[in-house]
Amino acid sequence: MSKGENTKRLKEIVAILGKHNLLSGVSPESLKSILEDLGPTFIKAGQILSMQPNILPPEYCKELEKLRSDVAPMSFDTVRSVLEGEYNTTLEKIFKNFDQTPLGAASIGQVHAATLMDGTRVVVKVQRPGIYDTMSHDIELIKKASGMINFVTKLGDEIDINMVIDEVWEVAKQEMDFTLEADHAREFRNNNKDVSYVTCPKPFDEISTKKALVEEHIDGFSIDELEQLKSHGYDIEEIAEKLALNFVKQVIDDGFFHADPHCGNIKVQGGKIVWIDLGMMGRLSPRDKNMFADAVMAMATRDCMRLTDFVMNMGVHNTKVNYLDLEADIETIMNRYATADFGTLDIVQLTEELFAIMRKYKIGIPKGVSMLPRAMSTIHGTLQTLSPGMNAFEVISEYLSGYSKKHFDLKAELTSIGKRVVTSIQKSLDIPAQISDALRLLSKGFSKLNMELSMSDEMETKVSKLVDRVILALIACTLLIGSSIISTTYMQPQLLGIPALGAVGFFAAIVLVIIIIVSIVKKPK
After folding, report:
1. Which of 268, 271, 287, 439 lies deepest, with the highest CB count within 10 Å?
2. CA 341 to mean position of chain CA atoms
C-alpha cells in the first residue's frame, strides 16, 4: 500500500473513531460498533479478542462474541475470480456443480456448497481477495497509532494494546492460510481415529490451496437443534457427556483442541459428533498440560498457595508481583466458593474473577495457553445448552483423576523420585560454593544477583537492611585486610609508626563496625 493509500486509510479510521466520540470512553457496546464500522479486519480482530479474557475484561468479551454473526458476502464473480486464479483454469473444469449462494460469510472468507466431477459433495471455503494485505496494513497503522489511542481513550489503562495487536495478527495469519486448516483437520482426525463417535470434515488436499479449502460436506444437525436431534432418536444427555469427554481428551491427552467450540461449530451426523471450522486451534506443550491439570486440582481442593504458584509460574509479567498480596486476592475469591459443592462451581464466573486479578497485577498468559480459558468457557456454555445440569469443571476433574491412575507407572515414578533425590543432594552440596561465589562477586562490586523475590514491603525493607549490613561488613573486612597488608610496608608518610594510609583504613573499618553494631542493637520499636 502506497503512502497516499496509507494516509487515506488512516483518515478513514480517524473519522470512524471520531464519529463514536471516544473522548467519553469506550464501552463494550461502542467497541463492537467501532469494529463493525472499521471493516473485516477489525471484525476478525474483535472475534479473536472475544476469546481472550486475559486481555479484555469479561463484559467486553461477551459483547464482541456477537461479531461472530455473518457479514456481507462476496459476489459470485469475486468468488469465481479467486478460485480460477488459484486453479489456473475455469471453475467448470474443477466442479460439476457450484452453488452461487454462500452457506455462510465471514470476515476472512465464505463457504459454498459444491460437487466434484466424481459426484462427491463438498464445501469450498474461499478467501476474500486482498484480505492479507488489508489486514497487515491495518495492523501496521494501528501499531503506529497505539500511543494516540491510549492517550485519547485511556484504553491502555485496562488493555495492553500492543500485546492485543500482536495476538490478533498472529491468530489471523494462521486463519488466512487454509493449508494450515487442512493440516489441523488431518491432525485432529488422527488424534481421534480410535474414538468411534468423533470426527471432523476430511480435506481434499489435491484441490486445496492457501486461499481455497475443499472439505467433505457435512449434513446432519447443529448440536443445538435439540428437537430435530430427539426426533431422529438421539439421546441429548449422551451427546453432552461424549462431547465433554472428547473436549477434555483434546486438552489433556492430545494438547491440541478446538479453540472455538460454540454450537455453530459442532454438528451431529450419522451417530457422530463432527467438529467443523478447525482454523482456530489451541496447542499445549507437555508442561502446559501438566500446569493446567495442577490448576484444576488446586481449584478443586481450594489450595490458594498452589493456585498462586500456578499463576506466577504460568503467567508472563514484566513488573514485580507482590506474591503475598496476589495470594490474598486469590484466597478472597476461593473463600466465596468455600461452601459450594465442587460439581456446582461456576467455572465461567471463577475464571473471570481469576483473570480480573491477573489483569490487576499485569500478569499475561503465554500465547500457547491463551486460547484455553475462553475455549473452556465456550464449551461450558455449549454443554449447558445440551444439559443444564452438566458442569465442565467436574468432568475435567473426574477425567484427571482417572487419567492419573491410568497413566501411573510405579517403576517410572520410583526412577523419577530417585533422580530427584540425587539432584537435590547434588544441589545441596553446591550451596556453600554458591554462597562463596556470591560473596566473591559482591566483594568485586557485583551487587546484582540473578534472582527475583516476591515479598511484602515490610519484609523487603528488612531484607534490604540486612543486605546493607552485609555489604558494610564486607567493606570493613576488606579495609582491615588491606590496612594490615599496608602496615607491613614502609610506605610514607607514617602515623603512629605505621603508614598513614593503613591508619586511615583501620579507622574507617572501626567506624563501619561501630555503625553495624549500633544498627543491630538499635532495633525499631
Report:
1. 268
2. 28
